[in-house]
Each structure stands twice: as C-alpha cells, then as structure tokens.
Amino acid sequence: MSVAALVLAAGRGERFGGDVPKAFTLLAGRSLLAHSVRALAASPEIDLVIPVVAAERIAATERELEGLDKLAPPVAGGEQRQDSMRAGLDATPEGTAFVAVHDAARPLVRPEQVSAVVAAAREHGAALLALPVRDTLKRVRGGRVLESPDRSEFYAAQTPQVFRIELLREALAKASAEGRVATDDASLVEALGRPVQVVPGDVENQKITVPSDLAAAEAWLVRRGMLA
Known about the structure:
The chain contains seven helices and eleven strands. By secondary structure, the chain is of the alpha/beta class. Helix 2 links the parallel strand 4 and strand 5. It is globular and about 50 Å long.
C-alpha cells in the first residue's frame, strides 16, 4: 500500500519574519524544505514526496530539489493549511493508500521516526508523532491562572502525521462543511470520532518558529555528525 508524503511549505511564517518564506530559510546551506524532503524520502516507508508551496515559489522549489529521490513536482498550496492539504491530496497518484503530512519547518525529523509513524498508521488508520509535555501547564484567562491541569495527559503534537487517504479526505470535507479551521491535521480526524495513535516523537523534531531556533537546529546537526 503506497504512501505519499505532503510537505507543507506554502505559509509565510509571520512569527519568523525575514525576506523569504520560512520554509526556504537556509539551515546549514539547505532550505528547511529541502531538509524535510530528504528526511522523508530516506524512509523506506515513503514512496513519493510532494512539496506544497506558494505558487510563486514553484520554479525555485523545482530548481532546489531537482534530482532528489522520490520527488513529485511541487504543487501550489492555498491560504490555509487545509487548502494546502487538499491541493496535495489532489496531486497524489491513483492507488495511494496513506498520506503523511509534514511541516517543512520541522527539518530534523529522522527517517526512522517517519517509518515508525507510518507503521502505526498502517495498523490503526491514523497516527502522529508526539512528546509528553514537560513543563507545568496553566490555563489562563485575562492574565489570571484558572487551573493547573495534570500534565501527564498532555502531549505536544509533531509531524509527520499519517492517515488513510480516504479518512483524511473525509475529515477535510467535514471541516469544510462546518467552516472549521485547524492547525493540526490529527484534530480533523479526531472530529470524526476516529482514534489517532501516538508514536513517541523526538525533541530534535521541533518546529522552527523564530530565528533563534535555527541555532539550536544547527547544534543538533553537529551532534549528529552532519556538520563540522
């Protein structure tokens, strides 16, 4: 059963700032998008990688990623994450059974993590990488603490998140019909009442959100022996 990976890179990354979209910011000489595409393609569980980028970045994406294994032509994304997912889904070839959705801004995902979450999705229908929350949580309103929930039940979601393709299509259709926008793909599936399996994530697989995150990512690359 074939698996296509959608690498979402159509957003601007407003919190990150800069002159180029965040996904095209360089980390150790490669864009965040290129790191993510390479990591996904390195997993034997992934058959095809589809970059989803802003329309005006398609030509630049083709140039940067030319020659990479398992690469499909980039497709134009939309204003919202869900629009980009639909565009990516429309580009999947006939016979695709599962779709892995990954944030381009998570460039340090390991191929073995990708394989693990795909394997879990094959068994359960839907799966995501996630890490237990380590800090104490506070629910706050108007600058005042309302409660301190038990953090043992809370996990921080990561990507890739992997789904049976028909399940993700159904989840997107329901969200569209209800006018609901989500920042997390698994939550769309949860809204159908379907279970989503959690696979242990990795602290290195953090999302690049602000420029200082790049320094931490470079340090992890050094630890992996990928940088001098």
